[in-house]
C-alpha cells in the first residue's frame, strides 16, 4: 500500500513539474532555425523545423539539395540571417500564426544580396510533438523566387585595356582582323583544300578536323585560321581559292609590329595552369591573357573585371527576367606610355635588321622615348596563332629575334669614358687641359703587370694628350692612367654614384649595370680595363642613355620613366658633375663627331654630339673576336633626347662609326618631322 501511494505521488509531482515548465515559444524555434540557416544546415532545417504544408509542397531535394547547389554554384558565402525581436510582453496564441520580420543578406559571385521578408511559424503536431514550425517557400532563398523558377547567371566580358604612346598613337588596341574559313557545301574540291592548306601554313588534316566539328552545318562559315587586317597579300590568295573566304572579327592589334614587338609583347589564350592560378580573379577558359612584354607586365591593369549578373528566369518561354544582383563589367585601363612610337619605329628601321638594342630618354624629365630590341618578332603573328614552322624559323634564326636585348646588359666599351672623366674631374685628379705624353700602341704601368698591357686604336694621336684629344681619339691609355691616378676607391665610388650595382628604378625589370661580377675592382689591370668599359663591366642600354643626362643637366640623373602619369623629373642621382665640368665634356663629345672617328654622325642638318664605343667580347669561345659597337649621342643644339645604340658584331663593318651612321639617321628623321 505504501509503495502504491509513493508511485501515485511521484506521478503527481511529474505532472505538476511539467505544468511549471514554460511552453515553447515561436521565437525560440525561430532562433534555432536561423542558427541552422546561418550554418547552412539544410537537412536539419527541413526535417525538424518545416511545417506540414511546406513539406507537402516541397520534397527534400527542392529544399536541401537545391539550396546546397545554389551555395556551391553561386559562391554564396557570409550568410547572415537575423530577425526583429517582438515586444517583451507579447503573448503567443497557438491558434494563430506567429509572424517575424526576417533580414537576409549574403555575398554571391555576382555581388551582395539583401532583403527582408516576413517569416510565419504555425503551432502544430508532428510525430507526437507539438511545437511551432516554419512556413517556407523559395522566396526565402531569393526574394522573388517562386516554385518552378530558375536562377541563372550571365556574364559580360570586360574590354581589355589599350596601350598608347605619348602622342596617342596605338601600340596595343582592340581592333579587328579576319577569320579565314570555308563554307563546307562550297568547299569540296580536294585541290582547293590543298591550296588553302599551303597558303595558311597548315595541313589538310587540320582543315578536315575543323570542318568535322560537331556544330558544323553545311551552309555555315567554318573558321580555319586568322589574318591581320593589313595582310592584304594573304587575303588576296585566300580570295582566289574557290570556296574559301574571310569574315571580319574582333582582334587585338599591334600596329607597329616588330618595331615595338618586344616592348608591347602579345596576348594569347589562357592556359589551364594559369586559369587554375587565377580562377578567383574572374578569369574564364575563353579569356586571353598577357604572354610577354607590357601585355604581361600590365596584365592586372589591362585585363579589367568581367561583369556578372544573377537573375531569376520566370516560368514559361516568355518568362520575365528579374535581376537579383549584378556587378557591372569594368573595362581594363587605358595605359599611356612615355614612348614616342614614331621615334621608336624610326630607330628600329635605322638599325636595318642588325642585332642590337637602343634606348632614348628625355634628359630633362627622365621619360623614356625609345626601347628597341632588334631584330624582333611581330606580335600580330602570335595573336593570330603562330604556326610551328614560323616559330621554328624565329627560334633558329642566328640573329635571335626572340631575345629581348634591351633587358640585358653589355660591356659598354668607350661609351663609359665620359663617365670615367666625370669622376676624375669631380675628384680633382683629372685636369682637362693637362696633356700626357703617351707613345706607342700599348702601355703598362710596370713589369708587375706581367703580360697585361693597355692597347689603343690610334697611336698617331699627337702629344700631349689632354681630355679633349683623349675623347676624340678614344685613347684607352689616357683613361687607364687617369683611373690609376684616381685610385680604386674613387673609381668604384664614382661608378656607384652613377647607378652601377643597383636595380634600375624602372617599370620593367632590366638587368642591372655592374662594375664587375663581385661589384669591386680587384687589380690595377681590372681598374684600367674598367676605365674604358671592358673588364667585367656591363651596362644596360637604358641605363647607359640615362648616364649621359648629367652632361646636359649639369650633374643630375633622373629616374627613367615609362608612363606619362608618373611624376616627371624624379631625381635618381644628383651632384654628379659641376656645370663647368659638364660643359667641358659636352664640348669634347661634340668634337668626337666633328674631329674624331664618328664621322658618319657628322650631319649637316643636326649638330650631333656623343661618344662611340667598341667592346670586345672576351671569354666566349664561340664568339671569339666579336665586337659590339656603341654610340651614345644627342643634338648639341637641341638636346630633346639622348640616344644610346648598340649593334652586335661590327668587327667587319668599320667599327663603332658604323653605329654612329645608324644613329645619325634617327636624329635627321626626327629633325625633319
From TrEMBL:
Q: Indicate the principal place this protein occupies in or around the cell.
A: membrane
Record's Pfam families?
Answer: MecA_N (PF05223), PBP_dimer (PF03717), Transpeptidase (PF00905)
Region forming the signal peptide? 1-18
Q: For this UniProt record, give its keywords in alphabetical order, as a comma-separated list.
A: Membrane, Signal
Q: Which InterPro entries match?
A: Beta-lactam/transpept, Beta-lactam/transpept-like, MecA_N, NTF2-like_dom_sf, PBP_dimer, PBP_dimer_sf, PCN-bd_Tpept
The UniProt record lists the NTF2-like N-terminal transpeptidase domain at 25-149
Domain Penicillin-binding protein transpeptidase intervals: 357-667
Q: Which Gene3D superfamilies match?
A: DD-peptidase/beta-lactamase superfamily (3.40.710.10), NTF2-like, domain 1 (3.10.450.100), Penicillin-binding protein 2a (Domain 2) (3.90.1310.10), Penicillin-binding protein 2a, domain 3 (3.30.1390.30)
Any one GO cellular component localisation term in the record: plasma membrane
In Gene Ontology terms, what is one molecular function of this protein? transferase activity
A single GO BP annotation from the record? cell wall organization
Question: Where in or outside the cell is it found?
Answer: Membrane
Per UniProt, residues of the Penicillin-binding protein dimerisation domain are 156-311
User: Which family does the entry's similarity section mention?
Assistant: Belongs to the transpeptidase family.
Record protein name field: Peptidoglycan glycosyltransferase
Organism, by scientific name, is: Planococcus donghaensis
